């Protein structure tokens, strides 16, 4: 009797046993896996799995979902960030860095950065276009980061550290940065317009008072407890009265009014047109500040100041 079977037949010889092939990760073909992405149904290994609300998703689907999902917004339109008070910390760092520069370099830093209207204020700058009226418009902002007295720096940075983080969380980084810088410019513009062009002005107080003004409007809109805030505001008011001959109340007032206006625009802008209304509010305060600066510059250059 003859054996008719062939040695290469049968499952042990490599023929299919009828079972489907073992699935492998679409990114790592050498890895077997029975887990599939809940969105695209592709097999994914442990390294490619991302926890989802139900099951797992692959890396690409998670990335696409993040792009499609709008960023979370604060109550007043800012983008919610995980990190705390980054802009506040950067602003404090800049103020500290400029102060250390004045300590190391000396009076030359004050000459280059302080707000002064008349171009002939500093003795070693006679004949140069040194003041704002001579074209040094950068002084309107650089002066807001300049302090030459440690007590002045300490008060302003303490106020910034207390006021900055809650405002930054409410407004988001972009709006908070805009508020700080526009209030600083508005304070400088008012100080420049209504102070002697021979008087140097410096310090972050205009911007700080802008934060005070905005905080008033935010708290009013949210009906929040103001007790913690009133103590800091009272301290700054007392310092302005006691040191009125050394501090620029004009700059403080300009920053405070700018903060009130911007705070009101941010807090009460209608949700459906929030970005537009807030943008117009910032532009309005900025243009008003520029107009005041140009008016004062023309007045000084005409010899009327």
Automatic annotation (TrEMBL):
Q: Which residues cross the membrane?
A: 90-109, 144-164, 176-195, 201-219, 226-243, 249-269, 276-295
Q: What is its main location?
A: membrane
- InterPro entries in UniProt: Peptidase_S54_rhomboid_dom, Rhomboid-like_sf, Rhomboid_protease_S54
Q: Which UniProt keywords apply?
A: Hydrolase, Membrane, Protease, Transmembrane, Transmembrane helix
Any single GO BP term? proteolysis
Q: Which residues form the Peptidase S54 rhomboid domain?
A: 136-267
List locations, semicolon-separated: Membrane
**Into which family does the record put it?**
Belongs to the peptidase S54 family.
Q: What is this protein called?
A: Membrane associated serine protease, rhomboid family
Q: Which organism is it from?
A: Actinopolymorpha singaporensis
Q: What is the lineage of its organism?
A: Bacteria, Bacillati, Actinomycetota, Actinomycetes, Propionibacteriales
């Amino acid at each position: 009797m003859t054996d008719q079977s062939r040695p290469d037949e049968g499952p042990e010889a490599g023929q299919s046993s009828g079972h489907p092939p073992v699935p492998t990760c679409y990114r790592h073909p050498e890895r077997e896996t029975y887990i599939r992405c809940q969105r695209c149904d592709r097999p994914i290994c442990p390294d490619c799995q991302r926890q989802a609300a139900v099951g797992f998703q692959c890396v690409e689907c998670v990335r696409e979902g993040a792009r499609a999902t709008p960023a979370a917004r604060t109550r007043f339109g800012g983008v919610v960030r995980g990190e705390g008070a980054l802009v506040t910390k950067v602003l404090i760092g800049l103020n500290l860095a400029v102060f250390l520069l004045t300590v190391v370099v000396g009076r030359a830093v004050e000459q280059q950065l302080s707000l002064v209207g008349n171009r002939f204020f500093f003795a070693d700058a006679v004949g140069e276009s040194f003041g704002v009226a001579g074209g040094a418009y950068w002084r309107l902002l650089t002066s807001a980061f300049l302090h030459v007295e440690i007590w002045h720096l300490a008060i302003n940075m303490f106020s910034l550290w207390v006021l900055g983080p809650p405002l930054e969380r409410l407004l988001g980084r972009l709006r908070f940065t805009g508020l700080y810088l526009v209030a600083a410019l508005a304070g400088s513009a008012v100080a420049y317009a209504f102070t002697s062009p021979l008087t140097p002005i410096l310090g972050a107080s205009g911007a700080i008072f802008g934060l005070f003004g905005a905080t008033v409007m935010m708290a009013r809109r949210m009906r929040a407890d103001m007790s913690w805030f009133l103590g800091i505001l009272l301290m700054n008011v007392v310092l302005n009265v006691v040191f009125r001959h050394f501090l620029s109340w004009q700059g403080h007032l300009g920053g405070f009014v700018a903060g009130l206006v911007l705070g009101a625009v941010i807090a009460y802008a209608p949700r459906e047109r929030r970005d537009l209304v807030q943008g117009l509010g910032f532009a309005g305060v900025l243009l008003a500040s520029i107009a005041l600066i140009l008016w004062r510059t023309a007045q000084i250059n005409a010899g009327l100041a």
